[in-house]
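Help! Submission page says 'invalid entity' but I think these are all valid:
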Amino acid sequence: MLVKNNVFRFIIASTLTTALSFSPLATAETTLANASVVVQNSFVVAQTTPLSFGTIVAFAENNSSVTSDTASLLVNSDGVTADTITNGTLSKIIPVVAATVATFTVSGAAPNTLLTITLPAAFDLTDPSLTDSKDFRVSTFTTSIVTSGSPFTYDTDGGGNMVFNMGATLTTDATLAVAVGAVAYSNVTFTNTYTMTVNY
Amino acid sequence: MRVLSTTALIVFFSFISWPAPVLAATITQQQALSFGTIALRDNSSAHQMNIAFDGTITADPAFIIISAGSPAEFLLSGFTANTLVNVSILVPSTTSVLAGAVDPSTSQFTIDNHHTFAPVLTTNLLGEATVNVGARLTTSGVGFYKDAMYIAPMTISVNY
């Protein structure tokens, strides 16, 4: 009887121990983490070839009563079509060295994404040395796509790149006020800067 | 003699029913919750992007997705096999901050609506389970965003 009681107690103890070892415990495991986002609004627009109207011989009409008499040199943005020169009565442009279109390369932009190009406003080319007070007007900008994600479309390729050209028209000075007829431009370089804007 | 053999049987039973040593339960991040790399066309009003727990991405047109994001993936391991566990996500702050920098001039995002497939999961035979976490990103609708990484913390808690 004594032996039986001991066995019974052992069974009770063993069962209790076993039950305790399986009882669910309210336990929690945690770990810290971050959610993130990377903003990359900016991308690179680089001028790989500057807009140049080449080397020319130019005459401006120096008669205030005939201000519409100008000569112009149109540089086509496709980079293939020959430059178009339109001379006035006295105003002349004679090409010596051919013009080149501007070329811009976009990189680091979102892939396969349409971009918007904002052309610059008309501006003047002037002589930084002030040897010649006359200027040229640059206006009527046009663009042509060179490489992009889709033909004839201003969208980036799979790598976020795009290349496009910009052409423009150079016009001789129409603001001269001394009536002496045609006047030649000095042999200097006329320059200016402009801003090309490309947006998503 | 008969009593002794009964006792031996009970002792043996007791040992085999004793639970095996429990491995340390751990939560391991396999993949971070990321909204990817984006550009914003405009921030004049608030815009949203959602990444669901299953990886589905929906975004307002104002977002330009440069590289797509992904939901977080956590591996639960060392848990008891075939056991229900409760998963909760604690978010101390839904407002993002610049990673590794302080710049009050930039706008911040709101990251909220953290979610999983279900709050209760069952571990497998190995005592493991996978938890995917998605969330929602909302722009400020005012100001601008500097090019940078923005982060917001969260804590994954598993109760069992």
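Support: the input was valid. A stray whitespace character was the problem, and the output above is from the cleaned input. Chain B has one helix and twelve strands.
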